[in-house]
Amino acid sequence: MKDKFKVELFLDFENNLAESPIYDPKNKLVSWIDIVKGTLNTLDKRGKISTINFNEKIGAAIPLKNNNSFLVCGTKALYTYEDGSIKELYDLTNVLDPSQRCNDAKVDDFNRLWFSSIVDDGIHAPEGKLFCYTNKEVICMDPDLKLGNGICFNKKNNRMFLADSAAHCIFVYDYNLDTGYITNRRILCNIYDGVPDGMLIDKDENLWVAIWGGARIEVRSSKTGLLKKTIDTPITNPTALTFNEEEGMIIISSAKASDGTGGKLYSYKVDVKFPPFNYAKID
């Protein structure tokens, strides 16, 4: 059956590697980052675009509840951006190897910040870890990743999902919200025709996975990993997704590809619902 919706251009704004899109319903703000440029970008309800330069590669930015404020995962540190000012929240130079930086990040229902690290020096083989920032400290939760992406949790908060892009798989962990511990990592599914990147989980417990290099979004069961739907995109490298409930659509970030596609934000109308994202909280 032909899909009644299609992926369309949402914002004609040039990025090299757009990631970490989030729609903030409280502040009516769309935010995303450009990893390569080291910028955090926002689009407000009036259509105004603002850009903040961190002068280093950043992997994710999670809104704080205050207007136009963010927790940002960088190369050297975790930062906050509040009232027009960038401040260091946590020094990562003793946590990350010099070849690494932060990558994708999500906040759980207990306000813990989960973020991955990846090698980004063009020399070393893919290698990374999964960290959790809570109670003013960073704890390594999984030391054995290659390229972590797409962190998300099911509605019962007893499963965590993570796409390891370089391993071409989606992992699932048993997750304890009260303690923040993850255990029993196993492969939910493998994806070889392209690379699994950012993910969302909908209220029906399906994973929506951006497939870098595959020009598509895949919808997969979070219980079995089976493919339920494929959404073709006009961009080769979709990177991540966010949900705008007011408009009934997902917003898709993308990276520029050698074929000239991508680097902008796209939208796709949906008739399903997604849980609200969690704002970051500073201890």
How do the strands and helices of this protein lay out in sequence?
Layout: E1 8-11, E2 18-24, E3 29-34, E4 39-43, E5 49-53, E6 60-63, E7 70-73, E8 77-82, E9 85-91, E10 100-107, E11 113-119, E12 128-134, E13 137-145, E14 148-153, E15 159-164, E16 169-175, E17 182-190, E18 195-201, E19 206-212, E20 216-221, E21 227-232, E22 238-244, E23 249-254, E24 265-269
Antiparallel strand pairs: 1-24, 2-3, 3-4, 4-5, 6-7, 7-8, 8-9, 10-11, 11-12, 12-13, 14-15, 15-16, 16-17, 18-19, 19-20, 20-21, 22-23, 23-24
Protein model, in words:
The protein is mainly β and 283 residues long. It has a single domain (8-269), classed as TolB, C-terminal domain (Neuraminidase), CATH 2.120.10.30. The protein contains no helices and 24 strands. The strands form six sheets. Strands 1-24-23-22 form a four-stranded antiparallel sheet, with no helix packed on it. A four-stranded antiparallel sheet has the order 2-3-4-5, with no helix packed on it. The model has no long low-confidence stretch (mean pLDDT 95).
What is the number of E strands? Answer: 24
Taking the sheet with the most strands, its summary is:
4 strands, antiparallel
- Which band does the percent of strand residues land in? over 45%
* Count of individual domains: 1
| Helical coverage, percent range | under 10%
Task: Choose one word for the global shape.
Answer: globular
Spatial strand arrangement across the major sheet: 1-24-23-22
User: What average pLDDT do the residues reach?
Assistant: 95
Could you say what the CATH architecture is? 6 Propeller
Low-pLDDT sequence parts: none
Question: What separation lies between the terminal Cα atoms?
Answer: 49 Å
CATH topology: Neuraminidase
The oligomeric state of the chains shown is single chain
Overall SS class = mainly beta
